[in-house]
Amino acid sequence: MAIADFLKRYFPALLLGGGIIATAPVMGQARDFFFHAFPGQALRNIGIFLTTVAGALFLAAVWRIREHRLLRYGGLVLVFFLLWIQVVGFARGMAQVDVVERFHVLEYGTLAALVYAGLKRRRPAPGWLELALVPILAATLAGVLDESAQRFFQLRVADFHDVGLNAFAGLVGVLFAALLAPPRERAPALEGAPRVLRGLALTLLALGLFAAAAHFGHEVRDPELGRFRSFFDAEGLRAAAADRAARWAKQAPDGIDPWARKDLFLDEASRHTTFRNHLFESGSYAESLRANQILEKYYGPFLDAEGFRGFGRNRWPPERIAEAAAKAAAGAEKRMPASYESPVLRHHLVLVPKLPFLAGIFSACLLLLLAAARVERRRAITAG
């Protein structure tokens, strides 16, 4: 009976959250298809769609609000201010990426609103703390699962930035839902505090494990080439290169299969190659040579892989290396020092010891669970 009631109240939220996570592997391809289908108009069409949705929701809220108008209209102004912060503050500076990421506001804001609606129908009625926090925690957890799925597939990129985007969208969604349909039944403010504490523990654990998997790495130091960040330490990187050389000699990765499992070595090599090529094309020839040396020494199997993403091999021929060296000399560019630090993955990977970090996360979760149990005991004693 309890399970049936739970499903009845939260089925729309579960359906939406499941759909977001299930489509994570192919959303990149869906985005690319849309941009190819509407060349030159995709950004405008997405902007028009999102603006229309936001306008319709605003008009619906104005029409629905009949009581406490001044307070709730002020809340609507706050909602749109938060939306502006999300659009501007979370922007990456790449129009195609930014406009697509704004769908996160719609997806996760709606998810939080649906969880809020399910909570409102629960008996006994939840307190305001539970109504405010649980939808945001649910949106955050769904975001972690979404990004974790992207961490598993080759063509997607898992990023804590997007988890923050989703959590913020949950905040906007639950605030808008509360303004649109405030709770009618009054309950103690801290009613459901143990559930909130357990939800916080679960969310913190998920965030910690995701951060450790997606953003913790190592710094590889080379006395001649400088240093760069990697998911592998120096020994692990050499072992990965030897393994890929053997495997890719039989079948090279094509880089276009959306269901291919993510290969961190392949992902790193692709990033370093893109960076090297960008440096050469932008005229930074000396640094492009250093980037190429890092590739040749640590990611050689990728340079010799044939047909990655429809192209040939990525290894520079001697003529290209000589050209870069000549242009660097002609431009009087300084040689890269041995202290050179590659920016590849520098802003994506953090150099934090993983075990102490996870120990801290587990300790914080345990404290939250103990606090939830203590609150329940105190309430049981008071009720008795």
Structure description:
- The protein is an all-alpha fold and 384 residues long.
- The chain has two domains: 2-216 and 359-383, no CATH class; 218-330, no CATH class.
- The protein is built from 15 helices and two strands.
- Strands 1-2 form a two-stranded antiparallel sheet.
- Helix 7 packs parallel to helix 9.
- The model has no long low-confidence stretch (mean pLDDT 87).
Brief descriptors of the model:
384 residues, mainly alpha, 2 domains, two-stranded antiparallel ribbon, elongated
**How would you name the oligomeric state of the polypeptide chains in this document?**
single chain
Average pLDDT score: 87
Q: Please estimate the helix content.
A: 55-70%
Strand content: under 5%
Low-confidence stretches: none
- The total strand number stands at 2
Rg over alpha carbons: 25 Å
> What spatial form do the alpha-carbon principal axes imply?
elongated
User: DSSP helix count?
Assistant: 15
Main β-sheet: number of strands, strand sense, barrel status?
Answer: 2 strands, antiparallel
N-to-C SSE series?
HHHHHHHHHEEHHHHHH
N/C terminus separation: 27 Å
State the domain count.
2
In terms of structural class, how would the helical and strand content be classed? mainly alpha
Instruction: Enumerate the strands of the largest sheet in spatial order, edge to edge or round the barrel.
Output: 1-2
Question: What is the structure about, briefly put?
Answer:
The protein has 384 residues and is mainly alpha-helical.
